[in-house]
Amino acid sequence: MQTITSSGLRRKLREVLAQLKRSTEPYFIMQYSRPVAVLVDVDDFENLRKQSANPHPRIARHPEISGGEPILAGTRLPVREIVQRVHAGQSAEEIAAALPPLTPGRVYDALSYYFDNQDEVELLIAESDPKRVWESAGLEAHQVAPGIMQAGKRSDPRQ
Predict the structure, then answer these.
(1) Is residue 22 classed as helix, strand or coil in its secondary structure?
(2) In the 8-state DSSP scheme, what is residue 72?
(3) What's the pTM?
(4) What angle do CA 59, 79, 137 make, to 5 degrees?
(5) 42 or 56, which is more confident?
(6) Which among 15, 54, 129, 156 counts the fewest CB atoms within 10 Å?
């Protein structure tokens, strides 16, 4: 056991704080060869706090883009579209190749958001279903060829 006086503790703390200001590295307080506390610069602490407040910093929302649904920051690409492509069997690499300048990492950013907010994204997927959109606009669709639908005014509005 080591004993230190209160004045010695103050002096040692001033030395540690001075060292912390000179260095960009955190200062670890160890006990039994394990860290028990960490001292960091206040600016580094604020940055860490902001990052932890937003677990998905590469996902954004803008009311004027896709109705405010979550998108990949810096793009107009909804998270919903990435998830729909994965559900359709595309890999992250295939999605990134089809949607440049995406990278597989950005695709995984969208998937990370999806797994943390699955109910929200699944609702967005359901709401964006073309048949549902047509119906809400009073239209009905008829298949004119395999994979091709034609929408027109509903013949009887009560249907």
Answers:
(1) helix
(2) E
(3) 0.61
(4) 125
(5) 56
(6) 156
